[in-house]
Specification:
Layout (H helix, E strand, L loop, with lengths): L7 E8 L2 E2 L1 H4 L15 E5 L13 H7 L9 E5 L2 H9 L6 E2 L6 E9 L9 H21 L5
Parallel strand pairs: 3-4
Antiparallel strand pairs: 1-6, 2-5
């Protein structure tokens, strides 16, 4: 979908490996991409994936970081991304970014889009200002350049 001229890009979307801290306790340390081979990798199943969502796969992440031949301990597929997050959270409700220096930018982004008269209402303008300030902090935290 095309974005209108009055739309404001807030920030892009990045993919990054995460894990439950419980899973990481007592196991071998996970410091490099190669270390992922000792774990099951979870992703959306083939029936859910389309050509437009190919960028959302582990294979894309592995290939992009030079690990095309890496095979995990096993693959675990779920039908929906929400099921993946729930499975990872079941241990104690936390997820830890395990390789923050290996984030992968995606073609997706979040946008602020308002109606033509929205800016005339002070409460909406205040919300939009706040949202843009939060988006700026998000870009700083993720290392995204200002666009």
């Amino acid at each position: 979908a095309q974005v209108g001229a009055d739309a404001i890009r807030l920030f892009g979307e990045q993919l990054t490996p995460v894990a439950s801290p419980w899973l990481l306790k007592g196991g071998k340390p996970l410091r490099r991409g190669e270390d992922l081979a000792q774990f099951a990798l979870v992703e959306a199943g083939d029936s859910h994936r389309t050509q437009n969502l190919e960028w959302l796969t582990w294979r894309r992440w592995l290939d992009s970081h030079g690990f095309a031949k890496l095979e995990p301990k096993r693959w675990l597929y779920f039908n929906y991304a929400s099921q993946i997050a729930q499975a990872a959270l079941m241990a104690n409700g936390d997820l830890v970014e395990i390789l923050p220096n290996m984030r992968l930018d995606t073609p997706m982004a979040y946008w602020l889009i308002g109606g033509p008269r929205s800016g005339q209402r002070p409460e909406i303008q205040a919300f939009c200002d706040w949202l843009q300030a939060q988006a700026h902090l998000t870009r700083l935290a993720t290392g995204e350049s200002e666009k």
